[in-house]
C-alpha cells in the first residue's frame, strides 16, 4: 500500500489513461465528441483527450489560453500543454486552435519547442490556427498582474497570463486578431499603438517598448503564417466528409464566466456553449459530451469551496495526488467529491457519460465522504447558489461510504475492483443518473478501466 506521504503521481492534472481507450468508438461518425471538465479544473482532461484522439481525425481547442495546463504521459515521457490541444501527440491527428482561444505567440512557440525536444514530431504539418483567434500581448500580461495588485486582498488569484485583459480587449472591440497580424502590417502597427496607448492610460506603471514589440511581431507573422487558415469552413468541410472531431475544453465548468463561481472564474465560456462559439459549430453536430470528474475535488486559487478539507485527509489527498498546478505551480486545495457541483455542471453541459479519474488516490482511506446536498439556514436548497455569500455559507450534507483500504493501481477490469470501489462508482452513477464509462487508477496509459 502506498504511503500517504509519498506522491504517487509526479505530475498532475488528473490521471486517466489506458490502451483500452482504443476500443472506444465515437458515436456517429458525423458527430463531434466533446470532453469537458466537470469541476474546477485539473480533472485530467488532457489524458482523456490524448487517448480518445486515437480514434479521432481532428482535435480542437475552443477557448481559453495558456492559463490552461494539461499533462500527458506517453511512453514514460511527460508533455505539458497550455495552448496546444492534447491530441497533438497523436501523429495521425490534425490539431486545431479555434477562434475562441486567445494566443500568446511567444508562449505558443516556446511550448512547441519544449515538447519537440521531448519527442513531439511533425507538428508543422498537423497544427492549424484560426485567423479569428485574438492575440495575447505581453502588455495584457502586465495589465493582468497590475490589476491583481490593485485589488489587494480582493484579488481573484488569476494566472497573470493576460487572459482576462485579452478577452476584455476582444469585448471592447480594440483587440487584435491573428488575421490582423497577417494582413496589412501598417494597419496592424496602428492597432497595436492604439492598444498600447490605451493600456498605458489605464496603467501608468505599464512599460511597453512599442518599436521592439512591432519588430518581434513581424518575425512572428512569418513564423505563424503557414499554420493559419479559416478554421470555421475547414471544420464544417471535414465534418461533412465524415471526419471524426474531438473537442477539448480548457479549464472547467465551475470556472465558466457565466455559470462558474463568479467572479472567481476564468474569462471564457468553458462549458458546452464555448464549443459552439469558439469553433463556429452548430449544436446539432455535437454527439457525445464526456464530463471528466476527479474522484475527489480540487481547486486552484481563491473562491468558495464547500467540501474543502483543512485536515489530515485534505493533506493526504494533496500529497498522494501531487496536487500542484501545471501552469501556476500553486498547491491545489483539496476536498471530498462534491456531487452537487457535478450535478449542476451536468445540467449546464448535458453530459452523456463520465470519466472518473484518480480513484486510486483514495486507496488508503477507511471511509470516504461524498457531498450530496447543500443546506442554507437549515433547509436543503434545490439550486446551485450564484451568490458567493450564499455559497460560502452552505452546509454540506454527506453520504459516507466504506473505503477499500488496498491498492487498485494495477487493476485493469471493473470486476477486479474491490467491491467498495465499485460501490463508490455506482453511488456516483446513481446520484447523477449518468454512466461512468472510464475509471482512471494511475498515471500510465495502461492505467484505465473500461466500465462498459
From TrEMBL:
InterPro entries: Adenylosuccin_syn_GTP-bd (IPR018220), Adenylosuccin_syn_Lys_AS (IPR033128), Adenylosuccinate_synth_dom1 (IPR042109), Adenylosuccinate_synth_dom2 (IPR042110), Adenylosuccinate_synth_dom3 (IPR042111), Adenylosuccinate_synthetase (IPR001114), P-loop_NTPase (IPR027417)
Principal place of residence: cytoplasm
Residues the record lists as binding Mg(2+): 42, 69
Stored SMART domains: Adenylsucc_synt
Keywords, comma-separated and alphabetical: Cytoplasm, GTP-binding, Ligase, Magnesium, Metal-binding, Nucleotide-binding, Purine biosynthesis
PANTHER family in the record: ADENYLOSUCCINATE SYNTHETASE
Record localization: Cytoplasm
Annotated binding of substrate, by residue: 326-332
Pathway connected to this protein: Purine metabolism; AMP biosynthesis via de novo pathway; AMP from IMP: step 1/2
Catalytic activity, as annotated: IMP + L-aspartate + GTP = N(6)-(1,2-dicarboxyethyl)-AMP + GDP + phosphate + 2 H(+)
Known partners and oligomeric status: Homodimer.
Superkingdom assignment: Eukaryota
Identification of the protein by name: Adenylosuccinate synthetase
Keyword Translocase in record: no
NCBIfam families: PRK01117.1 (NF002223), purA (TIGR00184)
Function: Plays an important role in the de novo pathway of purine nucleotide biosynthesis. Plays an important role in the de novo pathway and in the salvage pathway of purine nucleotide biosynthesis. Catalyzes the first commited step in the biosynthesis of AMP from IMP.
GO biological process, alphabetically ordered: 'de novo' AMP biosynthetic process; IMP metabolic process
Stored Pfam families: Adenylsucc_synt
Native organism: Parnassius mnemosyne
Active site annotation, chain numbering: 42, 70, 170
Stretch list, region Disordered: 1-20
Cofactor: binding details: Binds 1 Mg(2+) ion per subunit.
Amino acid at each position: 500500500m502506498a504511503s500517504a506521504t509519498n506522491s504517487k503521481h509526479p505530475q498532475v492534472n488528473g490521471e486517466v489513461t489506458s490502451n483500452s481507450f482504443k476500443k472506444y468508438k465515437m458515436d456517429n461518425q458525423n458527430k463531434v465528441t466533446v470532453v469537458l471538465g466537470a469541476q474546477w479544473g485539473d480533472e485530467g482532461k488532457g489524458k482523456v483527450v490524448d487517448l480518445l484522439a486515437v480514434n479521432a481525425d481532428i482535435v480542437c481547442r475552443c477557448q481559453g489560453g495558456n492559463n490552461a495546463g494539461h499533462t500527458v504521459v506517453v511512453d514514460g515521457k511527460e508533455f505539458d500543454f497550455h495552448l496546444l490541444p492534447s491530441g497533438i501527440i497523436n501523429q495521425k491527428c490534425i490539431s486545431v486552435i479555434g477562434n475562441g482561444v486567445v494566443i500568446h505567440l511567444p508562449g505558443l512557440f516556446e511550448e512547441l519547442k519544449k515538447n519537440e525536444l521531448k519527442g513531439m514530431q511533425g507538428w508543422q504539418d498537423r497544427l492549424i490556427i484560426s485567423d479569428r483567434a485574438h492575440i495575447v500581448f505581453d502588455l495584457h500580461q502586465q495589465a493582468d498582474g497590475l490589476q491583481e495588485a490593485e485589488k489587494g486582498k480582493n484579488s481573484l488569484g488569476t494566472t497573470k497570463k493576460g487572459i482576462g485583459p485579452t478577452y476584455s480587449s476582444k469585448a471592447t472591440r480594440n483587440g487584435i486578431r491573428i488575421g490582423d497580424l497577417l494582413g496589412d502590417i501598417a494597419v496592424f502597427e496602428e492597432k497595436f499603438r492604439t492598444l498600447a496607448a490605451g493600456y498605458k492610460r489605464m496603467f501608468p506603471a505599464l512599460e511597453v517598448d512599442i518599436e521592439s514589440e512591432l519588430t518581434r511581431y513581424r518575425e512572428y507573422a512569418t513564423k505563424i503564417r503557414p499554420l493559419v487558415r479559416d478554421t470555421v469552413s475547414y471544420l464544417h468541410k471535414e465534418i461533412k466528409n465524415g471526419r471524426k472531431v474531438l473537442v477539448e475544453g480548457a479549464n472547467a465548468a465551475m470556472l465558466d464566466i457565466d455559470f462558474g463561481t463568479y467572479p472567481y472564474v476564468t474569462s471564457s465560456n468553458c462549458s458546452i456553449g464555448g464549443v459552439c462559439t469558439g469553433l463556429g459549430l452548430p449544436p446539432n453536430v455535437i454527439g457525445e459530451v464526456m464530463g471528466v470528474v476527479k474522484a475527489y475535488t480540487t481547486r486552484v486559487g481563491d473562491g468558495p469551496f464547500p467540501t474543502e478539507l483543512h485536515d489530515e485527509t485534505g493533506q493526504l489527498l494533496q500529497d498522494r495526488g501531487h496536487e500542484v498546478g501545471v501552469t501556476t505551480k500553486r498547491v491545489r486545495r483539496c476536498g471530498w467529491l462534491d456531487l452537487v457541483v457535478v450535478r449542476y455542471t451536468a445540467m449546464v453541459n448535458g453530459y452523456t457519460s463520465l470519466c472518473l479519474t484518480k480513484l486510486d488516490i483514495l486507496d488508503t482511506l477507511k471511509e470516504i465522504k461524498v457531498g450530496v446536498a447543500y443546506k442554507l439556514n437549515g433547509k436543503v436548497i434545490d439550486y446551485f447558489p450564484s451568490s458567493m455569500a450564499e455559497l460560502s455559507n452552505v452546509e454540506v450534507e454527506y453520504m459516507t461510504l466504506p473505503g477499500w483500504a488496498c491498492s487498485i493501481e494495477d487493476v485493469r477490469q471493473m470486476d477486479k475492483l474491490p467491491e467498495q470501489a465499485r460501490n463508490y462508482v455506482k453511488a456516483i452513477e446513481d446520484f447523477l443518473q449518468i454512466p461512468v464509462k472510464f475509471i482512471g487508477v494511475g498515471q500510465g496509459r495502461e492505467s484505465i478501466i473500461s466500465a462498459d
